[in-house]
Structures are given as structure tokens and as C-alpha cells.
Amino acid sequence: MEGLNNAVKAGKARYIGISNCFAYQLAKLNALAEKEGFTKFVSIQGHYNLIFREEEREMAKLCQEDNIAITPYSALASGRLSRLPGESTKRLKEDSYAKFKYDKTAEADDVIIKRVAELAEKHDTSMTVISPAWLLTKTAAPIVGATAAKQIDGMSQASDFKLSDDEIAYLEECYVPHQFVGVMAQNTKAASNDKHVWSVGSQKV
After folding, report:
1. Torsion-angle region of 33 (φ positive above 0: left; ψ -120 to 50: alpha; else: beta)
2. Cβ neighbours of residue 205 under 8 Å, at least 6 residues apart?
3. 169 and 83 in contact (C-beta within 8 Å)?
4. What count of other Cβ atoms lies within 10 Å of the Cβ of residue 75?
5. Do residues 75 and 155 touch, judged by C-beta distance below 8 A?
6. What is the pLDDT of residue 205?
7. Which of 55, 179, 181, 184 is the most exposed place for a label (fewest CB within 10 A)?
8. Are 70 and 43 in contact (CB under 8 A)?
9. CA torsion angle for 183, 180, 143, 106 (degrees, to 10)?
10. How far is C-alpha 12 from the geometric centre of its chain's CA atoms?
11. Across-strand partners of 45?
């Protein structure tokens, strides 16, 4: 915390943010910053999309109360929210880390993905419009990535697309709790000595 504060004091950074932590960890860090007169974290970058909404349980509430920005990543869930279940891509076949994150809950997630496709068809648009449009009802600054030009086109249109309250509820109502995997699953003191998934190099987990 002191090193990050020094970077702000030196003018090398204006603000600081944090990624992949639990709400209690962010609260403790900002409490320490307030006690020591350090710069507080003003944003959290977490894993959040239509088929992984665990940030809503604690983190979203903390951020709303403490005026912390949520800048979620994986808006399309490694492409899963941009295509129908059963459709295959090179990334779907080769991205072992994405499989690690999503394959265990594929059956439950597919129900939601099919609803995204249904609304896309209803509005004569693409799934890459619907999924980020939902995310924009939760936060103003999602982090988006793409592996195809059509995904960029869809996500760029999402900010002008408005889902109705009924459509938002329709997309959300089938969600079931998900276990944390990957970085978040190991972001605890108890797992500090485990082999970390982000250091394997080959991405094979």
C-alpha cells in the first residue's frame, strides 16, 4: 500500500485500483489506507458477467456504499455469451483456462446463454450486443475484449441498446450460485502455498 501511495504522490499514477479480491479484503485495505493516510483504491476489476455474478453478493454492495467503481472483465465469458451452446470456435477448443472457469457449470449457464440468443433474435441483433448491454445496466465501465471483428461491432453497439426491466429479469432469473475458480479460489491465506493457476505458463490447468 505504501508503494502504491508513493506512486500517486510522485505523480506517476493518479488513482489506484485492484483486481480479483474479496470484498472483505478491499474493505481491509482501504481501512488501512485511511488509517495511514494513504491513497485508497477507487476501482475493482473483477470477474463478472451474465453467467458469473458472484460479485453481486458482497462486492457490489461495498462498492455502492463506498463509491468504488466496478470495472468488470470477461463481459462475454470467454466467448460463451456470444454464441449458442454447441457452436465451436478455436478458442473454445484451445483455451484450457476458460474451460477451467466455465465447463463445470455449462449446463446451468446454457439456459442463460439460450435466453441471450432468444433476445438477440427478438431484437434482430447479435448476442454480443445483448450480453454487454445487460452488463451496462450494472456498471458504466466494463472491460471488454474480442477475438473477432463481429464481437467488436456488437459490443460497440451495446451502449445504445436498452433492455427492458422484464428482459433484464428474464436474463437473470435462472442464475445459480457458482463456486470461485482460478485466481479468486486461491486468493486466501489458506491457499497461499498452493500452486497458483496464473503462474503455469502453458495455461494448462
Report:
1. alpha
2. 96, 97, 100, 182, 197
3. no
4. 24
5. yes
6. 44
7. 179
8. yes
9. 120
10. 27
11. 19
CB 88 within 8 A of CB 124: no
DSSP string, the chain: -HHHHHHHHTTS-S-EEEES--HHHHHHHHHHHHHHTPPPEEEEE-B-BTTB-GGGTTHHHHHHHHT-EE--B-TTTTTGGGS-TT---HHHHH-HHHHHHHGGGHHHHHHHHHHHHHHHHHTTS-HHHHHHHHHTTT-S------SSHHHHHHHHHHTT----HHHHHHHHTT-------TTGGG-SGGGTTSPPGGG-SS---
Q: How many CA atoms lie within 13 A of 147 on its CB side?
A: 14
d(CA 152, CA 166): 26
* Amino acid occupying residue 64: Q
91-122 pLDDT, tens digit per residue, is: 666 666 667 778 788 899 999 999 999 999 99
Edge-to-edge strand ranges of the sheet holding 16-19: 16-19, 41-45, 69-70
